[in-house]
User: What shape does this take?
Amino acid sequence: MKKLPDGWPRICPALFYDDAGKAIDWLVRAFGFEVRLKIEGDDGDVAHSELVFGDGLIFVGSTKRREGRKSPRAIDGANTQALGVYVDDVDAHCKRARDAGAKILQELKDVDYGADHWSDRCYEVADLEGHRWWFATRLRG
Assistant: This one.
């Protein structure tokens, strides 16, 4: 495979929100993302954004600007995917998310996949529009 441009991971998921500006602010506060780029249209709506977490990157955009894109809250909370993120201290991360009003779907727990595999400490959470995330810290790998 060809080398990627500096600062770009091979996969960049895109999430769509009814209020992308509010979602970006919340993702920064609750989950610790940093805004790398935010482009607003003439109407103030988010046309494109790039948020980074360590060496990970997500795009966040508005449902108003993309036909066929919907926020989970517009489809009765349904999700067809969940995002997984490894963090250094999952307990502290969970507290940060909870303090920002995140809906914890699965409380912190240790998951052991057996001696031949790995063990993680993780939790699952929904963001302010219902996208599902799980955050974990590797315990054994």
Notes: The chain has a mean pLDDT of 92. Residues 20-31 form the longest helix (12 residues).
